[in-house]
Predict the 3D structure of the following.
Amino acid sequence: MIIELDTLTINKIAAGEVIERPASVVKELVENSIDAGSTQIKVVLQEGGKKLIEVIDNGSGMNHDDALLSIKRHTTSKIAKAEDLFSIASLGFRGEALASIVSVAQVEIFTKREKDELGTHIHVEGGKILLDNKISLADGTKIAVRNLFYNVPVRRKFLKSETTEMNHITEYLTKLALAFPKISFSLVHNNRSVITAPKGDLISQINSIFGKNIAKACIPVSKTEEEYTVKGFITKPEFSRKSRDYLYIFVLNRPIVNKVITDAILRGYGTALPHDRAPIVFLNIKIPKNEIDVNVHPTKREVRFSKEAKLFGLVELAVKESLEKSGLEIFERVSEPKYKPTMLDQHSPSNVAPKKQPSQIRSSPSPSLAQDKLGYKVVKTRDKSIDHFLPPPHKGASYQKHEHSQKKLIKILGIIKDTYIIAETNEGLLLCDQHAAHEKINYSKYVDQIKRKKINVQSLLAPISVSIKPSELEVINGLKTNLMEYGFELEIFGKNEILIRSIPSIMGVAISYGLAKDLIDIFKENIDQISNQVKPEDLDFIKDIVSIFACRRSIKAGDKIAVSEAESLIENLLKLEEPYTCPHGRPTMVILNQKYIEEIFQRDYKS
Ligand SMILES: Nc1ncnc2c1ncn2[C@@H]1O[C@H](COP(=O)(O)OP(=O)(O)OP(=O)(O)O)[C@@H](O)[C@H]1O
Ligand SMILES: [Mg+2]
């Protein structure tokens, strides 16, 4: 039997698209305040927005009738007809946000226009109006959203941690404050001030949000060609980050994620920027209104441009010229293709820069593809094709048991290219990658210490200080206690600095500024893993941490090591339960057994 759904049910379903989490409520309400011409916007949160989200503005306000209309679906003052969709000047246009919010929360709206004597106070719960009063109020609008998803228990249950929510909310407000420097923004969480950004210009906003270190490092960008303008600030490559979280791109004041523009920026830096890094950039792009389509994604995060190639060229050149003016010599990255047109299906949400790919910022071919082309076998994990390179199953475990007898059987024959150890064992010829081996040993020791809750910690003689932004401060604040369990002691210092006081001793004593920045990025990417009790073997962030430290500290490919060192490296590796792969699944060593060697020489093999 087919029935027509009632309005509340329809709105609840639709709300799922627009309102995913507290951060989406903040986004929608603040965007409404901006559209209403406010010059001052205050956001107040409790419990990461799960308990309360309040947005107070001094904008146009609504009259009584409009206030009642605003919470209905498809009611908007921002567009009137379909053609208007192609020249949208406001942040909102669907007339969906308030209707969605009131269907999944307990909401109070207070609003008054300057010309009205009395304002309106409405109380709506689950789409039902419980109260509708005319009262005296200050001009502007205040909307309070309590207990989000109180009537959708499944969604409420699956809300992410307070730290994750604060990371998203703070980051989004940061973007809006940068996009609209003429508006004062403030954010207060659990009675603690998180962002205070008084109105000013872009550089004063950068200064009040990111701190003076980053503001001082800013290099101006300004380039105009016909109706196109690229304006803002970039920083020299030494300020680059592992993640793309410092790429602030605005098109017509709308914070956006867009691959074409990101690629153009990275290309503008040429070879000055390492492959796996992204710079700190604040860029405002102006193009004719009818050349941008903001209606491609339900949350409007992604946009499409009708003249992408032109935009690509302009952004690349603007970045390059500014860097050159600041005294840097920029060489083009020849290995990478220039502008690649966006395919239609690339506009799907999956096209957004994948978050969980910390070490691969640019889309380089996967290592397996690259190696296949070179014609040698790629061994990822212990699969069938490499079986004859490895000892029979369970042999790894038997090494452990017969440690002593095994010792005699490893004979180091040499080290080639200062990278690969060659040894003879009772199984055959052993080839070991010294760097991968060392990384694996360190990783296993670290996991073991975590399991035993006995981390050897190294206090840094001089704590290292890293510049951070408000969203990162929220993350560190939320994870500080958990991180102690992994051997990291961090302290928040002022609004834009964090001090790293100690690190697990397995990582070594020295930690550079660059490494410290990468650590913060890894923590950010793994908030949920760090704040939940996850089994040490399943912690991805531990692998990432060990690997970034290993790249700098443990034995690297190309380092000369003594034969005795090589011997103990292999011995220690063989003691592990899974000695054959590094934490990220690449091989640490392979054994060319007798059968394989005899096959190569086409001898008859009799076992
Ligand atoms: N803070 C505010 N001040 C003044 N008017 C507001 C405010 N918030 C909402 N409104 C009015 O309520 C209407 C509905 O808001 P709503 O966010 O639901 O839709 P929208 O902003 O038009 O579109 P979208 O769904 O894309 O956000 C707006 O068009 C606007 O007229
Ligand atoms: Mg809106």
In short: The first strand starts at residue 40 and ends at 46.
